[in-house]
Records
---
Amino acid sequence: MKEVLTNPTDGYYINNNVFGKNGDFITSPEISQLFAEMTGVWLVNEWQKIGSPKPFQILEFGPGRGTLIDDILRVFKKLKLPMDQINIKLVEVSPKLCEIQEKNLCGSSSAPVLASICYKQNTTRHGSQIGWYRQLKDVPKKFSIFLAHEFFDALPVHKFVKNEKGWREILVDFDREGDQFRFVVSRSSTPALKIYSKFLPASSPKEAEISPQSILIARDIARRIHEEGGIALITDYGHDGTKGDTFRGFRNHQLHDPLVDPGTADLTVDVDFSLIKKAVSEETDTSVLVYGPITQARFLSGLGIEQRLQRLLQNSSAEVSKDLISGYRMLTERDQMGERFKLLAFFPKVLQDHLTKFPPVSFT
Ligand SMILES: C[S@@+](CC[C@H](N)C(=O)[O-])C[C@H]1O[C@@H](n2cnc3c(N)ncnc32)[C@H](O)[C@@H]1O
């Protein structure tokens, strides 16, 4: 999964613009401005509640086309936040998407400095400094707002199944002719099984997907929040440890066998939010307060998405109104993205008393 998605020369994300009607999938920020506006309002509210610390950085993982952060910055500017004291740090592996993000966010293109850990720098149209990094560990440690929207679902997993011999890892092999990949169940224990067995479910389900990179990144975010302060908001499709076999491909908005023509389709899993929670709660010396997961419908309605929609409809043409309403439905309806998408938030433990009195909006 890692090679197929992020191989430096042939990875699916590395060279492709994978979004929208001509791509393979579409995400909430691309569906409607309402999503980023509500997220922006939530962030400003939570940031103000803890005393509006400045300067601060927004660190977004896998920003896609940059639409979420661009719309959030528009909200921040409208609410008169000090844009010159906000630093944007984007963690992105794809040079192609980095180019698109820079064009959308800055309206200009800067020369990449490939030898540097901050491989591109510019200023956004909203007046904030912006820098691009390949991995979290390269980003300076500071008070940060962490955003991960449809990022964790792209991180590679190990798959396991429980049979009569106990837990076994599912591996990828060739068929006899050697021209087709296939899944096989390992006959004996594997290193990954030994390392990650403590994360496997005690009784059910009988299959599991464990993402080591998700565990490491979630712990790193928690550690940074503990040491420097900050807030994290993770949004993705996922479950609470109840599903074990969700690995799949998407091509042209259709399900696609992940073992056929690797590199031509997006590969993804439903995020196991219980695994992320377990990973950060085990770090006893750096533990953070974890809220959620809550559904996207609940998050957006707690922030007043209906009222915002009505407001926008007052000044919109018939065509724009139609798009706004269909976007709103897609984001919030139960059988669309309203229930399948969930949000998880981290706050520093020192805020426990404060957040008991003033809990994060929508999360209680
Ligand atoms: C499914 S897209 C989501 C894009 C965007 N957040 C959105 O919701 O529209 C995943 C994004 O994560 C990036 N990505 C995938 N694996 C990554 C990794 N290991 N490190 C950094 N970025 C990664 C991709 O290039 C892409 O920008």
---
Amino acid sequence: MTVTATERPKLVTILYATETGASEDVAGALSREAEAADLTVTCQDVADFDPEDLDTLDVLLFVTSTTGEGEVPYTAEEFFEAVESEDCPDLSGIRYSVLALGDSTYEQFCEAGKRLDRALATAGAVRIQDRVDCDVDYEDTAAQWRGSVLAKLIGEEAAKPVAEAEIAGSVERSPRYEPLTACVTENRILTAPGSTKATRHIALEFVDEPPAYAPGDALGLIAHNDDGVVDALLKALSFDPAIQVPSNGRMISVASALAESYEICALTPRFIEGWSKLASSPGLEALQSDDKARIAFMHANHVIDVIRQYPISGLSAEEFISLLRPLQPRLYSIASSQRVTAREVHLTVAPVEYELHGEARRGVATGQLVLRAPVGSQVQVYIQPNEHFRPPAPTTPIIMIGPGTGIAPFRGFLQERSCETNRGKAWLLFGERNREFDFLYREELEGYLSDGILTRLDTAFSRDGSEKVYVQHRIAEHADDIVAWIDAGAHIYICGDAGMANDVHDAIVQALARSKQLDAGGAENILNTMRRAKRYQRDVY
Ligand SMILES: Cc1cc2nc3c(=O)[nH]c(=O)nc-3n(C[C@H](O)[C@H](O)[C@H](O)COP(=O)(O)OP(=O)(O)OC[C@H]3O[C@@H](n4cnc5c(N)ncnc54)[C@H](O)[C@@H]3O)c2cc1C
Ligand SMILES: Cc1cc2nc3c(=O)[nH]c(=O)nc-3n(C[C@H](O)[C@H](O)[C@H](O)COP(=O)(O)O)c2cc1C
């Protein structure tokens, strides 16, 4: 049920659930606007909100992203458990609205926001504004939602000046990122010849004053598309590369716009819908009403493949650009500590390479880093802070679980600890395919082990034996030790693939359940308590 609010709220609670900061930015903007409208506001990370206080809320405005494959941001899991539980109290005293951030190329688009909206309504809360689902270019849609929500709370007339101030820029906006120039000083393959992978170590040195970064932060790379893909599009569409098109409020050549400003590989539902209308194609049209088929089509085709399969003549460059979405920066966990590398950041990058329609295809950012980022070249980057993935005090014991490129932040953590004289125990669980070829940073890690910076190193090489072994199997094997470390106050960190993180979580739950003779719920409670105390942190992608 959606109703129009009649009462001016006593307190507006804005909560956000974020993995990479966008929801926090939107919540911050909403908070500033609500304050400008003289509302009493509290804005906080859902991680810091006690679900026990749910039924005391007056107005709840919730901004949440979706992560993994349709999953809730890690820090919001407990809140979701509370609102989705059968024991959730009656929330009919709450007026609420949800803004869902997501990415329309994912099968479960904005799933966390959808779940939350459903759960709050089921618990009796009164929706004052319909949920809005945003794609990665969320800014305008989110601003509209903020305006509508404020209008519902204080009335259209009162909300108008706030909206006008926002348009004029007088309501302070937090810049998502300030790009900085960095020079590539190292770009080498970490895996040995014979490996099925070509994971890279990349070192970047800031050209100007280096920004401060902390262990756990990520680096955002402002990626550029491959010239070969740009040329293929220009040719297939018969565009003059010099034709001017609008991009970020200015006119630039279509060739530059395609290279720098737009996502030109991955398909989106919006592109398919637009192209289907222009091409009058029943095949594409049928995808509009079949979510599964559309997702499968999006995985099996890029923009260029659609253009080739469903050609259109007479399309203008501007029309084409209007079907594309802005090119998003790519994030990489920082694999260094500024206390050691000062002006540099290090990255551990797994190139994305595959074949489609008989052609070799590469990921946008990893393609750039592999093919067009030789030592001496420059890239545009920014620091993405990650407050939810900070190492504990140096004396606190720590368990780090980071297979594959998940090792990256832990290299930073270990460098940081190497600067300390008084250190707690540190246990690293690393996994990859083959010990011989894929033991990333092997010498460094073994050095840390012999120096006592790392107390214990367990590895799981999945393709070395007849049976596949992953880090979660090592956790099961060493369950008693894991529990003993937890009992001794260890903090647990998991980084890397989202599926791996779930398997590792289950393995830790089982270890705790067996050792403490609890059911799975009881073991989950231990991890929830650890999560609240910031003793259990995950950074997954
Ligand atoms: C917080 C965070 C930290 C991260 N840290 C790291 C890190 O330390 N190291 C690292 O390497 N990465 C990391 N990533 C992932 C990184 O941000 C990029 O997503 C990744 O490098 C791919 O980017 P890309 O531009 O090269 O590929 P994109 O151009 O984004 O292409 C990737 C897409 O290609 C498509 N694709 C892939 N394989 C196939 C296939 N076989 N068939 C069809 N389509 C396919 C899929 O649609 C996939 O989504 C991190 C991500 C996050 C969110
Ligand atoms: C690893 C990863 C997984 C994601 N999974 C989904 C998904 O399943 N569904 C979706 O709609 N969006 C997904 N997204 C997109 C994010 O929800 C979107 O980028 C959002 O703007 C991020 O907001 P945040 O910075 O507040 O986390 C994913 C993003 C990342 C990095």
---
Amino acid sequence: MNTLIITGTYSPKLTACKYCQSHANDTDEKKTIVKNGKKEVTIRLESYQNIPTILKLKKQRYFCKNCHQHWTTQCSIVEENCFISRFMTFRILELLTQKISMTVIAKICHVSLTTVIRVLKSVEKHLPETLKPRSFPKVLMVDEFRSHATYEDKMSFICANGETGELVDVLPSRRLDKLMNYFNRSPKEKRE
Ligand SMILES: [Zn+2]
């Protein structure tokens, strides 16, 4: 499949060193921060007219003569060490809210399945506490109780620490599919 390639250079004028905050020009007009080559990165953009599109961006590298640090400038369209643009990230997140498989999303966006999973995992820290994967005590007591909390199931689920008796969680339904979703949010090691 053809790919549309856009090339660009990003070389902003600096006012100060990223590390020691030295002013870009010192008193005798000699440069404190010098340009030090460019680093080319490939960034996946949103498709243009269904053609996969990438940006080959040359990012300026700098060197500070005062603190001897090197660094590469960062560009707002992409997060550091990330190879898909922020627009792509938003597009993937938008598609993740729909009932379509991650494989299809990967195909639509011309990215790998791993990328889609990584984008999904990147928002995990923003989830409400109740939706985050959690760890469980070594001994888990489980029970059901009548609650009418949901329309489909009149029984709720309760679990507690089998050694201390401390309440772990109460779930509105005891149905296996609901419980599987709940427990599968935690990594396998934590569940084991
Ligand atoms: Zn410096």
